[in-house]
């Protein structure tokens, strides 16, 4: 398997606001192995996008602060210069953003945008690069590739633009692809096309993928391993099968049970009471404790550490410190 | 058979496309192109389909927030397309709408109390104390507290704001609620709270819902029957169990097979459709789906199939079943 493509250690990202410094990502650790698809799930505002921006060195300054280590093939990107980051971005690490329209430049043609990284990073000439761009557009299933390279983003539908984004991200054969909700804005039949394509590219080029999404269906379909985030922390991690079939953290259990399953009708959905806390509003204890049916006095006072199990599953919950918590699974089905 | 609460016949909405120097009409967006369905009292009819297929336009026409270009809408047997504006305003007491974006649909400068009082004033509740009492009651019904009344929308979370939107719709004791993507903007854990609330309210007040959404899991969960739309047409309509277990229309089959299932053991036989949804300003001749249909044959490109009852209660518009 070799060493991880990327290894993030104790990442802390915070923002300076009028209310002071707000921690958004509070000490997370994860890694992605070569050729692996890692899913990062969690509710809106839990810090998924900020995590990916931190890895890419794109956290807006001067308000954003990033601490910790981001080891990409052994090199710590957290202390890399902006010049070095520019060499890596779009070349060795590529990113697909959620909203394709905002990340394509309206005044350049599709071809100009697709070839930019090849010409800058690989110093290819225009003709070579254009030929590769056409080839990539065909690979992502776009018709009329030769004409499309001469067109502008507004002439394309949302699904087509998202495929262009994927072509652009994959054109330099990145070692790591960060996909932040790559299909959330798309219809299901188009989403199915795009996911199929990403799977194919992952298999064929062995690109490692960090897949950020809130859709558990997408995760079940695409990922080998999952990291579950809640309010800036990782609460659970494991291979996809374990997490779906034997989730341990009460948040993960609740999350999985909240999703209506299209295949069968449940009388009533499980719902986690309460709301996601505002970043920085929980000063001590487990971030999920205020919504947790199993919360004990200890949970409100001390932050639990990530505990590892033999099967590689990791969970951050006091219930599992001394074995008394095996029950979380059954009783959350309230 | 008792009379349905709502009955829609051949409903159409064509938005004109203006062009040229004189702003003459040069074409039309056929947003809704002849849909027919009914909703029984106390049931939930789900409406699904991909972006732009005409779900919201259909919902808005039922309330005549948009004027239909053609077709009839009967509410308790009465043709409401014939009503004058004044008569229609009274009628809206019976039919209310819950919108997708709970934030955009609530006036940010008004307190929750004011937001909830407004429909009461419009519908003639003159006594101030009576209104206050009703606001308090409504907040409790949707699981908020009376002290929330003095707050502004931005002080609430997304799920709470959607509860306020629901409370506002309930204020005048409607019979029909048209919910247009009411949980699409919410996180799953909050989404299930709102879905449960809608179900509880339906039981308690014998409400009838038209539930519009693109999430097929959500629609199955909440609906008794489901209609599938494609390019301004209903292509299939059946009991929800039946539709999900035995879809007949090739589009419904592709749509259902495209949904990622949150279960790692699930084996799928996926129909991946080619190409994009055609534009409703230039819909294909014949069957609107034939350009992407894996089973299309000659007739499909020329003759538009009509919605027919293929099995009892199961309607489909497809030449394969004629
Ligand atoms: N530039 C910024 N300044 C201040 N706060 C920010 C900034 N960017 C993000 N945040 C805050 O950080 C938190 C995490 O945001 P992030 O975008 O990572 O969430 P997410 O998990 O990606 O959510 P979603 O699923 O909605 O995309 C949010 O509360 C957000 O408001
Ligand atoms: N006021 C309008 N003028 C012109 N075209 C319109 C107008 N309103 C809607 N349309 C068009 O009508 C079609 C149907 O729109 P509608 O909003 O009903 O779709 P929808 O099924 O609700 O989609 P979504 O899932 O994206 O909400 C779309 O092509 C839309 O662009
Ligand atoms: Mg995000
Ligand atoms: Mg809509």
Automatic annotation (TrEMBL), chain A:
User: Which molecular function terms from Gene Ontology are attached?
Assistant: ATP binding; ATP hydrolysis activity
Provide GO CC annotations from the record.
Answer: plasma membrane
Report the InterPro entries cross-referenced here: AAA+_ATPase (IPR003593), ABC_Ni/Peptide_Import (IPR050388), ABC_transporter-like_ATP-bd (IPR003439), ABC_transporter-like_CS (IPR017871), Oligopep_ABC_C (IPR013563), P-loop_NTPase (IPR027417)
> Pfam families from the xrefs?
ABC_tran (PF00005), oligo_HPY (PF08352)
| Annotated membrane topology | Peripheral membrane protein
Q: Gene3D superfamilies, alphabetically? A: P-loop containing nucleotide triphosphate hydrolases (3.40.50.300)
A GO BP entry is: peptide transport
Q: Which domain of life is it from?
A: Bacteria
Which stretches make up the ABC transporter domain? 6-256
Q: What is its main location?
A: membrane
Keyword Phosphoprotein present in the record's keywords: the answer is no
Regions crossing the membrane = none
Q: Does the keyword Magnesium apply?
A: no
Q: State the family named in the UniProt similarity comment for this chain.
A: Belongs to the ABC transporter superfamily.
Q: Which NCBIfam families match?
A: oligo_HPY
Q: Please give the name of this protein.
A: Peptide ABC transporter ATP-binding protein
Name the source organism: Fictibacillus aquaticus
From TrEMBL, chain B:
Q: What is this protein called?
A: Dipeptide/oligopeptide/nickel ABC transporter ATP-binding protein
Q: Which PROSITE patterns match?
A: ABC_TRANSPORTER_1, ABC_TRANSPORTER_2
- Magnesium as a keyword? no
Keywords in UniProt for this one? ATP-binding, Nucleotide-binding, Transport
- InterPro entries per the UniProt record, alphabetical: AAA+_ATPase (IPR003593), ABC_transp_ATP-bind (IPR050319), ABC_transporter-like_ATP-bd (IPR003439), ABC_transporter-like_CS (IPR017871), Oligopep_ABC_C (IPR013563), P-loop_NTPase (IPR027417)
CDD domains given in the database record? ABC_NikE_OppD_transporters
Question: Example GO biological process term?
Answer: transmembrane transport
The question of whether Mitochondrion is a record keyword is answered with no
Which protein family is it in? Belongs to the ABC transporter superfamily.
Recorded GO molecular functions are:
ATP binding; ATP hydrolysis activity
Taxonomic lineage of this organism? Bacteria, Bacillati, Bacillota, Bacilli, Bacillales
Residues in ABC transporter domain copies: 6-256
Pfam families the UniProt entry points to: ABC_tran, oligo_HPY
């Amino acid at each position: 398997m070799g060493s991880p493509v990327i290894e993030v250690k104790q990442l802390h990202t915070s923002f300076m606001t009028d209310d002071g410094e707000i921690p958004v990502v509070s000490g997370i650790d994860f890694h992605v192995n070569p050729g692996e698809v890692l899913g990062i799930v969690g509710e809106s505002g839990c810090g998924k996008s900020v995590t990916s921006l931190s890895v890419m060195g794109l956290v807006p300054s001067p308000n954003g602060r990033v601490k910790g280590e981001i080891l990409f093939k052994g090199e710590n990107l957290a202390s890399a210069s902006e010049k070095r980051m520019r060499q890596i971005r779009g070349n060795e690490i590529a990113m697909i953003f959620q909203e394709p329209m905002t990340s394509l430049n309206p005044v350049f043609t599709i071809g100009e945008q697709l070839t930019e990284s090849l010409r800058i990073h690989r110093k290819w000439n225009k003709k070579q690069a254009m030929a590769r761009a056409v080839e990539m557009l065909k690979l992502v299933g776009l018709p009329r590739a030769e004409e499309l390279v001469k067109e502008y983003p507004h002439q394309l539908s949302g699904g087509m633009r998202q495929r262009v984004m994927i072509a652009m991200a994959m054109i330099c054969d990145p070692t790591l692809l960060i996909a932040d909700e790559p299909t959330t804005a798309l219809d299901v039949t188009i989403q199915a096309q795009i996911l199929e394509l990403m799977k194919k590219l992952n298999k064929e080029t062995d690109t490692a993928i960090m897949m950020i999404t809130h859709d558990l269906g997408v995760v079940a379909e695409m990922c080998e391993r999952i990291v579950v985030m809640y309010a800036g922390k990782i609460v659970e991690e494991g291979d996809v099968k374990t997490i779906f079939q034997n989730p341990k953290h009460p948040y993960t259990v609740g999350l999985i049970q909240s999703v209506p399953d299209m295949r069968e009708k449940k009388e009533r959905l499980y719902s986690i009471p309460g709301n996601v806390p505002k970043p920085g509003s929980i000063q001590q204890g487990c971030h999920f404790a205020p919504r947790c049916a199993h919360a004990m006095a200890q949970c409100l006072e001390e932050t639990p550490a990530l505990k590892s199990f033999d099967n590689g599953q990791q969970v951050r919950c006091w219930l599992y410190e001394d074995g008394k918590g095996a029950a979380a699974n059954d009783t959350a089905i309230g | 058979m008792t009379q349905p609460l709502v009955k829609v016949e051949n409903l159409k909405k064509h938005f004109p496309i203006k062009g040229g120097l004189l702003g003459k009409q040069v074409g039309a967006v056929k947003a809704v192109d002849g849909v027919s369905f009914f909703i029984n009292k106390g049931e939930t009819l789900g409406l699904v389909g991909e972006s732009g297929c005409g779900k919201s336009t259909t919902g808005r026409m039922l309330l005549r927030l948009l004027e239909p270009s053609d077709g009839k809408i009967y509410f308790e047997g009465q043709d409401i397309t014939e009503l004058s504006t004044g008569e229609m305003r009274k009628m809206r007491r019976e039919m209310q709408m819950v919108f997708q974006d709970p934030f955009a649909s609530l006036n940010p400068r008004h307190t929750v109390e004011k937001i909830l009082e407004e429909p009461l004033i419009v519908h003639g509740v003159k006594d101030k104390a009576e209104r206050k009492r009703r606001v308090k009651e409504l907040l409790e019904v949707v699981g908020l507290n009376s002290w929330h009344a003095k707050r502004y929308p931005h002080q609430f979370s997304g799920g709470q704001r959607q509860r306020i939107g629901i409370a506002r719709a309930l204020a005048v004791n409607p019979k029909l609620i048209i919910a247009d993507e009411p949980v699409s903007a919410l996180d799953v854990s909050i989404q299930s709270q709102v879905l449960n609330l809608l179900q509880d309210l339906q039981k308690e007040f014998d409400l009838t819902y038209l539930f519009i959404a693109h999430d097929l899991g959500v629609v199955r969960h909440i609906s008794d029957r489901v209609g599938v739309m494609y390019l301004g047409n209903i292509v299939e309509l059946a009991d929800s169990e039946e539709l999900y277990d035995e879809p007949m229309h090739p589009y419904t089959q592709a749509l259902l097979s495209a949904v990622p299932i949150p279960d790692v053991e699930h084996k799928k036989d996926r129909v991946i459709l080619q190409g994009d949804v055609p534009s409703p300003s230039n819909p294909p001749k014949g069957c609107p789906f034939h350009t992407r249909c894996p089973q299309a044959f000659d007739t499909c490109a020329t003759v538009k199939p009509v919605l027919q009852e293929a099995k009892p209660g199961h309607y489909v518009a497809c030449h394969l079943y004629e």
